[in-house]
Amino acid sequence: MREISDVVLTHAGKFHADDVFAAALLRILKPGVEIRRVYQVPEDFTGLVFDIGWGEFDHHQSGAPVRENGVPYAAFGLLWREFGASILGRTEAQRLDERFIQPIDLDDNTGCGGALPDLIADFNPLWDSGADPDQRFLEAVELAQKVLQNRLDSVLATGRAYRVVKAAMKAMEDHIVVLDVYCPWKPFVTKGPARFVVYPSQRGGWSGQCVPFPAEQGGGLKQPFPAQWAGKTAGELAALTGIPTLRFCHNNHFLVSADTKEDARAACVLAMEIAREAAVAEEK
After folding, report:
1. What is the pLDDT of residue 279?
2. Concatenated DSSP letters for 187-233?
3. How many CA atoms lie within 13 A of 188 on its CB side?
4. E strand or H helix at 37, and its extent?
5. Which helix or strand (DSSP H or E) is residue 166 part of?
6. pTM (predicted TM-score)
7. Phi/psi-derived region of residue 122, left when phi > 0, alpha when psi is between -120 and 50, beta in every other case
8. Distance, CA of 190 to chain centre
9. How far apart are CA 124 and CA 5, in angstroms?
């Protein structure tokens, strides 16, 4: 990975989400890096410079780079283009660019606004406050660093989840994937044959959840739970299904809860049996 200098420069004065998140990224990559804000880059400075000076990580000059989809780069995007793959790998770095970084770059280049850019902009000193802009910049960077680190951690955790879900999918029976630990699973199973996923509930017990079709196919549920289960009490569900610890079915038919893994799985099996019987009866 390219070396980051001990001292980096960016512009002084009013700041935006672009330079704030660029600074946050550099602090994640090199904890302890000193970020100085200047109005002009000294001629003898040889370290990394961003969002000023018309250099590699600036975007204010004529001919500044633009993505293939037409979204112009700002400093945050240029730094991410340089360092992102070393953090997340090329595929996930590109995905994060599309979902998180491009809106910030677009705001900086067009002034289109957005919830996150507006939140960062509010750290700028009020016209009559007398606050130090550099101090307020550092406060904004601290927040941005937490936001960005959380996003990076989430992406990396999803990658770890993929390995867990992939193993469970290999062991799948009856179109039901069973996870022994809760982890994100939806991005990995929609395009396969799975219809349900059973996993430990974060509220205790076990959940069974319907797998949706991929977004390009409409995203509806492959196999919803029976409508007659929806909103029933635990006692009513036990009487309807014969599953003793089944205690909840969501009104939208996509989720059930039970006290045991076996009963959560049994609810998924029964839902498919009821659907098959209904289909046979309809054909007759």
Report:
1. 87
2. HHHTTSS--EEEEE-TTSSEEEEEPBPPGGGT--BSSPPPGGGTT--
3. 19
4. strand 34-38
5. helix 133-170
6. 0.82
7. alpha
8. 17
9. 27
